Amino acid sequence: MQTFEHEMLREIYEQPAAIRRTLARYLSGEGLRPEVASMLAAWSIPEGEILIAASGSSRHSGLAAEILLEDLCGLAVDVEYASEYSCRGTDGQQASRHPSVLVLSQSGETSDTLAALREARLRGQKTLAITNAAGSSMEREADVSMPLAAGVERAIPATKSFTCQLVVLYLLGLYEGARVGRMNDAALAKHIAELSALAESIEAQLDEWREQMAALAHKYVAAASFLFLGRGIHYAIAREGALKLKEASYVHAEGYPTGELKHGPNALVSDRVPLVVLATVDRTLDGSVLHYEKTLQLLRDMKEQGAKVIAIAHAGDADVAELVSDCVFVQPAPEYLLPIAEVIPLQLFAYYMALERGVNVDRPRNLSKAVVEAVS
What we know:
The chain is an alpha/beta fold. It has helices at 7-13, 15-26, 34-41, 56-73, 82-85, 111-122, 137-141, 160-179, 185-196, 198-220, 234-249, 286-305, 318-321, 338-356; strands at 27-28, 31-32, 49-54, 76-81, 100-105, 127-131, 144-145, 225-230, 252-257, 275-278, 309-314, 326-330.
């Protein structure tokens, strides 16, 4: 039995078990439990629009869900900072739109997100809450609730709650995709089988990731800042990786779409400002292959420029490995499931960077597990 010095590391390692528990709550055999499908039927999307309101890591899972729900279900999705949505009022064009509203919160008590939920209910919009806390305010007040089964998360940086959010959002995407006729029973069963296999794949990779990221944290501890880059659904993970590094280790970092690097941020790239690039690919999807090829070209340019680059790539991808300073491999997975796996090495990188810098990783300064006082 492994022992862990910190709750954050323990919770990173708990992710396969947390994913299995969450799946068991919603799946039966090759499909959603009948009671889950009945529950979700109560969260109608009459206008074909969803508005996602969330903060912090939860907003990043919402950014991933935006791509997932648009691509798999053909829905129109907007992602709002909860703190902004609840303050916008109902004047003008916004009043003419009636999206169904999805709120995401680990605690279910985040003040800005709770305010967004209540604002949506005042407007008569259907609401769905995804939280990790049974009996929370959001779970009670939303029309429909999809709770996680991540278990109590004690470290302030979110890890297992984030990956379980991605799992539940993927299940929501499968339900909606089937509901609107975008996937048949065979396709649905295939997606569910792929999702069900993910926990075992992650479990098999954890120790190697841990060793690699500990070494990379030692190598890059003197960096002043990092730029995290990702395309499509992976942009959300670039944002999350940057946030984890900031909150856990106090190292500045920002997440950008990969194609935006040369539109300004490249001026920052130097020996003390390395890049972390998400360069995975699902070769069964044309869009994923296009993203990958464009990312390869950027990596070629960065190598010629002399940039230091850490890449997250598919196991055995020699093309990426030869273009970067350091390459961390993940096992192949479908495009919309890759974020669940590829974020975990970034969590470990943040953890070990914190240790290298002497930070109390479970209790970073100025932060709390749930922001329950409204930000003015």
